[in-house]
């Protein structure tokens, strides 16, 4: 009995307090777990392709999947701030850079699939496609806008640009997410249920910010 | 101390696992591991063979109108379908069409005809000799297959009902039963699914009243029990699970024309030079191939069908 008391001299922290301010080790572990989880969509495609389990049109599935995972990671990244504010779990911001970079990672795979397995590096045809098809140019614009964000997602760039300029640059993510959802909406043949779900989630995430700014 | 190591001569032949068994076990383990992995990742697992619910068709003759190209495997033909009555994902029809009741079945043939008649499935099966027609199928979405259909020219049926002079077009109405078809409960399209052809197109020898595929009756996801196949037009023109064929004077309003008049025209002939407003139709991916192919005018059937459109602006009448 006495030893138990001796070991626990600090007042016990409540679960809420521990969730709000976990130790460094916990944060690092969570980061590791999220990193592995974020690679699962890719693993699924690689394993599925290798085992020929991606269905009748594997390239279409790869294109779709990398595209929707890009949007999903964009939305998860945008959910970090609202989650922090609502739960007080401010350490979540330490996952944000990695989540944003995963969005960039999946859009690179998405774009590569298009360039390689859809167009076979036919640059004139690709250029024509980008200019002519509105769903492609809006998706391409979103991709291009995401590049400077990915390039400046390091401490050096934050220092170099200064916090205010860096933040202003990274507000582009709102435009990128909107373009991404429109890209999805425009390419669907008829059933827009899926893009509508992404649009609704994005609308909530943006509305949260607007409401907060008003107050 | 007993010796635990057995010398080879001590092992009875009956104790040795036959090679086929251990190989089988190994592939079973591999399959199970893959299934677990894929299942966990939310990938669809191979569903049962669609052939199980179909019946072999006898006396199907080969046709000179077949093409000599590598046929798309049966499991692809029966698992990758656009049949919105069962859902908008390609895998939905194979998953949801099982509950469709295809017997008894009949098609009402009516409108501008001298002898309107309702044909039941038995009559349709015996109406003319079944032929195997290996056709290209080009979807408006940019993929294609090669499918060995079984059926006979639609004109065999048309001749029997004797269209009047007013019959200029043929309208195909397909089943829309929300009880059997979950997709019909959502307003993705204006149900029932209606398609149409000009009378000469419907009379064309390539237009096939289709009752089977790969020598078997049609699986539900492929439009059982009876559908039409028009190989030089985008796949959506070929209505599935037909319940009514009407002969009319005016061009029918098809389901896709109502859904997107600027994107889907009445003719919808395969044409690499007329793009869908949102994507190119110049190339296609033949399922099973990685590289894309050039799409052919009239899906490669120009020699037989181009004359029907002589003098028409195919960009205007898309």
Q: Estimate the strand proportion of chain B.
A: 15-25%
**Please, how many helices of chain A?**
11
Helical proportion of chain A, percent range:
over 70%
Name the largest protein-protein interface in this structure: A-B, 26 and 32 residues
Contiguous low-pLDDT stretches of chain B (5 residues minimum) are: 10-14, 16-47
Structure report:
The complex is a heterodimer of chains A (about 220) and B (about 325). Chain A is mostly helical and about 220 residues long. Chain A has one domain (about 1-215). Chain A is about 80% helix and about 0% strand. Chain A contains eleven helices and no strands. In chain A, helix 3 (about 25-50) packs antiparallel against helix 4 and helix 4 (about 60-85) packs antiparallel against helix 10 (about 170-185). The longest helix of chain A is centred in the middle third of the chain and has 30 residues, at about 60-85. The radius of gyration of chain A is 21 Å and the shape is globular. The model of chain A is unreliable at about 1-5 (pLDDT under 50). With about 325 residues, chain B is an alpha+beta fold. Chain B has a single domain (about 50-310), classed as Alpha-Beta Complex (Sulfite Oxidase, Chain A, domain 2). Chain B has eight helices and 13 strands. Chain B has helices spanning about 20-40, 75, 90-95, 120-125, 155-160, 200-205, 255-260, 300-305, and strands at about 60, 105-110, 115-120, 130-140, 145-155, 170-175, 195-200, 210-215, 215, 225-230, 240-250, 285, 295. In chain B, strands 1, 4, 5, 8, 9, 10, 12 and 13 form an eight-stranded mixed sheet that branches. In chain B, strands 3-2-11-6-7 form a five-stranded mixed sheet. In chain B, a hairpin with a 5-residue loop joins strand 2 (about 105-110) and strand 3. The longest helix of chain B is centred in the N-terminal third of the chain and has 22 residues, at about 20-40. Residues about 10-15 and about 15-45 of chain B have low confidence and may be disordered. The interface of A and B includes residues 51, 57 and 118 of A.
């Amino acid at each position: 009995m006495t030893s138990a008391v001796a070991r626990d001299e600090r007042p016990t922290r409540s679960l809420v307090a521990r969730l709000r301010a976990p130790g460094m080790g916990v944060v690092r572990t969570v980061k590791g777990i999220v990193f592995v989880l974020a690679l699962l969509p890719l693993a699924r495609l690689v394993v599925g392709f290798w085992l020929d389990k991606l269905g009748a049109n594997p390239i279409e599935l790869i294109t779709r999947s990398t595209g929707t995972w890009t949007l999903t990671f964009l939305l998860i990244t945008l959910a970090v701030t609202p989650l922090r504010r609502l739960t007080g779990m401010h350490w979540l911001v330490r996952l944000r850079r990695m989540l944003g970079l995963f969005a960039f990672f999946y859009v690179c795979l998405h774009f590569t699939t298009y360039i390689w397995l859809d167009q076979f590096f036919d640059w004139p045809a690709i250029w024509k496609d980008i200019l002519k098809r509105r769903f492609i140019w809006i998706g391409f614009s979103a991709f291009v806008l995401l590049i400077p964000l990915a390039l400046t997602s390091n401490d050096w760039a934050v220092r170099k640009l200064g916090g205010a300029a860096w933040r202003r640059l990274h507000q582009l993510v709102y435009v990128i997410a909107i373009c991404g959802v429109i890209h999805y909406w425009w390419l669907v043949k008829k059933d827009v249920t899926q893009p509508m779900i992404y649009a609704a989630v994005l609308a909530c995430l943006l509305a949260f910010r607007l409401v907060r700014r008003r107050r | 101390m007993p010796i635990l190591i057995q010398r080879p001569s001590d092992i009875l032949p009956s104790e040795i696992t036959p090679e086929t068994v251990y190989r089988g076990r190994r592939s079973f383990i591999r399959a199970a591991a893959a299934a677990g992995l894929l299942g966990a990742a939310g990938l669809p697992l191979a569903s049962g063979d669609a052939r199980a619910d179909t019946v072999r068709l006898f006396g199907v003759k080969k046709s000179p109108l077949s093409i000599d190209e590598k046929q798309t495997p049966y499991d692809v033909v029966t698992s990758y379908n656009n049949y919105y009555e069962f859902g908008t994902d390609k895998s939905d029809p194979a998953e949801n069409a099982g509950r469709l009741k295809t017997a008894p079945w009949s098609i009402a043939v009516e409108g501008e005809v001298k002898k309107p008649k309702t044909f039941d499935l038995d009559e349709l099966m015996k109406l003319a000799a079944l032929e195997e027609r290996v056709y290209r199928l080009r979807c408006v979405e940019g993929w294609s297959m090669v499918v060995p259909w079984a059926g006979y020219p639609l004109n065999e049926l048309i001749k029997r009902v004797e269209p009047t002079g007013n019959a200029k077009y043929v309208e195909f109405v397909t089943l829309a039963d929300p009880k059997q078809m979950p997709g019909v409960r959502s307003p993705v399209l204006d149900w029932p699914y209606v398609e149409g052809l000009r009378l000469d197109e419907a009379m064309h020898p390539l237009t096939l009243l289709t009752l089977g595929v790969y020598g078997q009756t049609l699986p539900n996801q492929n439009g059982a029990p009876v559908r039409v196949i028009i190989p030089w037009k985008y796949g959506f023109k070929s209505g599935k699970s037909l319940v009514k064929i009407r002969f009319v004077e005016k061009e029918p309003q098809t389901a896709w024309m109502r859904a997107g008049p600027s994107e889907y025209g009445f003719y919808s002939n395969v044409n690499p030079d007329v793009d869908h407003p949102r994507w190119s139709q110049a190339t296609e991916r033949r399922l099973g191939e990685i590289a894309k192919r050039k799409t052919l005018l009239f899906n490669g059937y120009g020699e037989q069908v181009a004359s029907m459109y002589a003098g028409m602006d195919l960009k205007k009448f898309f």
